[in-house]
Design brief:
With about 270 residues, the protein is an alpha+beta fold. It is about 40% helix and about 20% strand. It has one domain (about 25-265): 3-Layer(aba) Sandwich (Beta-lactamase). A six-stranded antiparallel β-sheet has the order 2-1-6-5-4-3, sandwiched between helices.
């Protein structure tokens, strides 16, 4: 009996060692969820709003992670330094109106690069790879350029977390080179002495398509991996605004998640 009790207490130690963020205050005027797991065991170590974390929503620009895997695997993108020539269309952000490398595509969230990639892949290839990835509902019927942007393709936070974990553990039926190149281009920054964060945001309008120009409630995503030496974690978060808010929802949520990771004492 004593041995069983000690074993049970030992299992609780990692959870007890975590901080206790005030998730409700962190999300503020947003209905959101957050889930994080040990990348190697799959064990969930913290979760907020689990019902919402199981709900499938449009991935918005977080889909670019999947698009990058597809593009590298099929040779549309050769490496992280390839230059994708600007199409000449003037868009609302200056950083979009120039040539892009794969890393810039991610960091600038250049939708036009995704729109350049998906027609080259073709619907049949995309649907097959979405199935191989177990990527949400795998429904690309919304069109090669818009299925992932608040139309047909939907995925839950749990599925997003499991998807990014597979990139790090080699759990996808893709070449090691493809997965290594994708990791490189979704690197965000170093935090603390040992921590590195990888991931991708996503922002979508809940109504219409002009919420960036005329503030209105948005959907935001932040999906990725946190590395602390040998310790690695996969996480996913999404949130919908309850009131109109100005800055894009994805970057706002990224800052919220990074703060939560600090409060969970996972950043060193």
């Amino acid at each position: 009996m004593k041995i069983k009790l000690i074993a049970a207490l030992l299992l609780l130690i990692p959870t007890l060692a975590l901080g206790s963020p005030d998730f409700k205050s962190a999300f503020g005027s947003r209905d959101g969820c957050f889930v994080i797991s040990d990348l190697h065991t799959g064990k969930i170590i913290s979760e907020y709003n689990p019902k919402r974390c199981q709900e499938r929503l449009s991935p918005c620009s977080s889909f670019k992670i999947a698009a990058a895997l597809m593009a590298f695997e099929k040779g549309i993108l050769k490496d992280e330094n390839q230059v994708v020539k600007w199409d000449g269309v003037i868009r609302d952000r200056a950083e979009l109106n120039r040539d892009q490398t794969p890393f810039m595509w991610m960091s600038n969230s250049a939708k036009w690069v995704t729109e350049w990639i998906t027609p080259q892949l073709g619907l049949e290839t995309i649907q097959r790879l979405l199935k191989d990835f177990s990527y949400g509902n795998q429904d690309f019927s919304g069109g090669l350029k818009d299925a992932w942007q608040t139309t047909s393709l939907k995925i839950s936070a749990h599925e997003q977390m499991e998807f990014v974990a597979k990139i790090w553990t080699g759990g996808l039926p893709l070449s090691p080179k493809t997965m290594e190149l994708t990791k490189k281009i979704i690197f965000i920054k170093k935090l603390g002495k040992e921590s590195e964060v990888f991931g991708k945001t996503g922002t979508g309008c809940l109504v219409g398509h002009d919420c960036m120009e005329h503030p209105s409630p948005m959907l935001g995503w932040f999906v990725g991996v946190l590395k602390n030496g040998k310790a690695e974690y996969a996480f996913a978060a999404n949130a919908t605004d309850l009131i109109p808010q100005g800055p894009p929802a994805g970057p706002r949520l990224r800052e919220t998640v990074l703060d939560l990771l600090k409060k969970l004492k996972l950043i060193r």
